[in-house]
């Protein structure tokens, strides 16, 4: 583990300012509940993209191994050749719940009704757009995307689920007018219709402070991706980097976090990676 003070000195901003690491300090509520610890605990799951190669080899074995580790929630990125009903049955058989899934914006624009119906059949609570095309990453393009997000979010909300957007690092790089893409997307969307799924690794990688972003967007971050980062920017298993997930997840829970999904984009040992990450979070008291 890299010395935290060295990390703070080298980071582009104070990613984990000392006064914001504990529950109930600075940027918390001002209604007389300051300093109180939230009783709510976010569900800790895994984004199955981490295990894409393992799942391709044997879906049932992969799901069984996840359940054996202790995971109860998963986030999907595809149906793995199954119908929603078939995949739901396989997940149920292992005691797992697909509470969320990633969907490309085009499929939501082209066939929103059927896509929502499939998500409901899976028992999901959340539908998330994981990225945007490079052609959409302009001020005008993002404004149009925000309008679409509001439309889609309204349909998803009326179905009983939530809709959200998952960031990478480019969203924190200001455009020519000085406005960050993430702010265009969030400022132009209705908080009641569009959530933010904060990818903690990419937020840090983009030069932003997750704690400051949580405070600025209180109530918008209902799910996060839990991915660790070394001082020099390498993605690693949770616990092998310098990100303080205990402090971050505690702050996020107080702001409305419901789900935290462990992920590693390119693990050498996918199942070993999600096991190591879960065990670190468990030892840290983040999961029971």
Describe this entry's structure for a reader.
With 288 residues, the chain is an alpha/beta fold. Helices cover 40% and strands 14% of the residues. The chain has twelve helices and ten strands. An eight-stranded parallel beta barrel has the order 1-2-3-4-5-6-7-10, surrounded by four helices. Helix 3 (59-69) packs parallel to helix 12 and helix 7 packs across helix 8. The longest helix has 20 residues, at 139-158. The protein is globular and about 50 Å long. The two termini are 24 Å apart. 41% of the residues are buried.
- Alpha-beta classification: alpha/beta
Helix count equals 12
Named at the architecture level, the CATH assignment is: Alpha-Beta Barrel
CATH topological fold name? TIM Barrel
The poorly predicted ranges are: 1-39
Q: What's the CATH class label?
A: Alpha Beta
- Averaging pLDDT over every residue, what do you get? 88
Task: From the alpha carbons, calculate the radius of gyration and give it in angstroms.
Answer: 18 Å
Query: Portion of residues in helices?
Result: 25-40%
Question: How are helices and strands ordered from N to C?
Answer: HEHHEHEHHEHEHEHHEEEHEH
N/C terminus separation: 24 Å
Question: Based on DSSP secondary structure assignment, what is the total number of beta strands?
Answer: 10
- Assembly type of the chains comes to single chain
